[in-house]
Write a structure and sequence with these properties.
alpha+beta; about 350 residues; 9 helices; about 15% strand
């Protein structure tokens, strides 16, 4: 049945062609152009037309719009969850940001712009190994030695009183003072410090008349490891980076400086039956410091950070990244003199 007057059945069209070629009288007039187009389309279609209740799935679109849509959704989530950081990535800054450029530390966010921003605070940033019987120690004794070594690091590098320049009495109590050279070191380090007797090799201290902590958070990253040493001793090596955020002690301005101190300390927990010492203390096998923005050629016994307005960059000094921990201390300290003043690529 013709429902629109615009299509011609195949039989009629074939009859028209035959009669037109034969010159048959009374042959129907040539169909309109629209009719010919419809007829041609019908010839090309091999499948029957779909029924009026038949479901025809929509044409599949390309993957491009799917990917674009996914990117847009992720971007919207980032903006919703961390609008400030997203704005910084995009180069936009809100009102009042002129004094706090992206990456610049502030009193409210003193670790902003540094890797330490994402580090843990205090001893939470120091990885502890599982204890196992080693050397002369049982598993329980090794566990206690690890805990005591961590406590020493906390007393030496995190204690607020020590950071204010006070004598690190608790940390000193953990040292075997009968070890040759230790008493001499401790007698000089705090009263008449030198490069040889530098308290900063073991303890973090700031001159309270010069700088103070910006808040009570100290960021850390590092680990304790251990092995059997000489005469069955348990040697625990601490390789830890401490990051301190500081402001001027005078309270002038709101500029925040950061001092980074990476220490490697090897603590030998010796068998008291084989080594002279006080039970519960350890001997210092070795200790060394790699610091940034703590004062170049400094023998004051305190870290002395430079604030930006006072900082004088050096073009000929060796440049180091104080946050980089992939390089061992052996490699980091190789061919470096204690008096060398390196330039930190960032603090």
């Amino acid at each position: 049945m013709d429902t629109g007057g615009s299509s011609i059945p195949d039989e009629e069209w074939e009859r028209f062609l035959r009669e037109a070629e034969a010159g048959t009288p009374g042959a129907p007039e040539e169909p309109s152009a629209r009719a010919r187009m419809v007829a041609q389309r019908l010839r090309e279609e091999t499948a029957p037309p779909p029924g009026w209740r038949t479901h025809q799935p929509p044409r599949r679109r390309g993957r491009t719009w799917y990917v674009v849509g996914l990117v847009v959704v992720v971007a919207l989530l980032v903006v919703a969850l961390v609008p400030g950081r997203a704005a910084g990535w995009l180069g936009f800054h809100g009102p009042g940001d002129s004094t706090a450029a992206p990456g610049r530390p502030t009193l409210d966010d003193p670790f902003k712009g540094s890797p330490a921003e994402h580090w843990a605070a205090g001893t939470a940033g120091i990885t502890m190994p599982s204890a196992r019987a080693t050397g002369w120690m049982s598993e329980k004794q090794v566990s206690d030695a690890l805990d005591n070594s961590l406590a020493f690091l906390s007393d030496a590098g995190l204690d607020p009183a020590v950071l204010r320049g006070e004598r690190p009495a608790k940390a000193i109590a953990a040292l075997n003072t009968k070890q040759p050279g230790i008493e001499e070191y401790l007698a000089n380090a705090f009263d008449s410090p030198t490069r040889k007797y530098d308290p900063l090799l073991l303890f973090s201290r700031f001159d309270p008349a010069y700088a103070r902590l910006a808040g009570d958070v100290i960021k850390t990253r590092g680990a304790l490891t251990y092995r059997e040493g000489e005469r069955g001793a348990v040697e625990i090596t601490a390789d830890v980076t401490f990051v301190y955020a500081l402001v001027r002690a005078s309270g002038d301005g709101d500029e925040v400086a950061r001092t980074i101190a990476r220490r490697e300390i090897v603590m030998s927990w010796d068998d008291p039956e084989k080594v002279i010492g006080t039970p519960g203390t350890f001997a210092l096998k070795s200790y060394r410091l790699d610091s940034a923005n703590g004062g170049c050629d400094n023998t004051t016994g305190y870290f002395r950070p430079d604030f930006e307005k006072e900082r004088g960059p050096s073009d000929d000094a060796t440049k180091i990244d104080p946050y980089e921990r992939g390089t061992s201390m052996d490699e980091r300290m190789k061919d470096r003199d204690a008096a060398d003043c390196d330039t930190a690529t960032r603090t």
